[in-house]
Design brief:
By secondary structure, the chain is mostly helical. Helix content is 64%, strand content 0%.
Amino acid sequence: MSDIDDVIFGAFDVPAHRERVPGLIGLMNDPTAREGDRFLACLALTTWGEEAGYEAVIRAAADPKRSPWYDTLIDRKFSVDSTFAQLAEAASEKDLAEEKGTLPLRTEALRALVRIADGEYFEDRLGELFDSAVLVALIDDIKDAVGRGVRSLAAGERHSFDLPTQLVDLASAAALADGPLAVELAMSVLGAVEPSQRALMHAVAIAHRAGAGPEGRRFAEYLAAAGDDAVRAALGK
């Protein structure tokens, strides 16, 4: 996708990208067009802070597996759809949304994506996508998504990707706004299953973000005891 990336991200320096918007909206909404082309149009519009892009993301998240481009991108690690991971990264872009006055709709698009994070795959992106203003707005949605995921794990439901680690990533995002809450969310995930070293390694970011308070210290001690040498090295122990 390098050439496509050049086109999409080149728009940050080229105001003339606005001339492409009507055509991309038409392509994205054309049921006769190739699904992959429709997805790339949505990706561009979302990255560019366009209302039509955010609205399409919200529609897709409302019924993920029926989105027109579902399964056009397949993750190599788990062989599952990864279109929502790409859309989440696109929606995380903020500069053009500020310029175009679409920040509130951007928040709603990110909210729609968080709400499906217990069922759809987001690669390893969820811990790094959200700015502080969005986190304040989405903190209850993050709590709800983690809670649903934990209940699913506790019930023994099978998942086609590493859900515990993804939920830890979501808790890690929350740590940027509320360290003690993030620790609580992560512990609920790690307590619902036998945690993998991968999940524990991803949880290290929470220990760092939670800081030197009692919750952060206790969480770091737990990770050091449960983790391997790589986890302890990441903790600085």
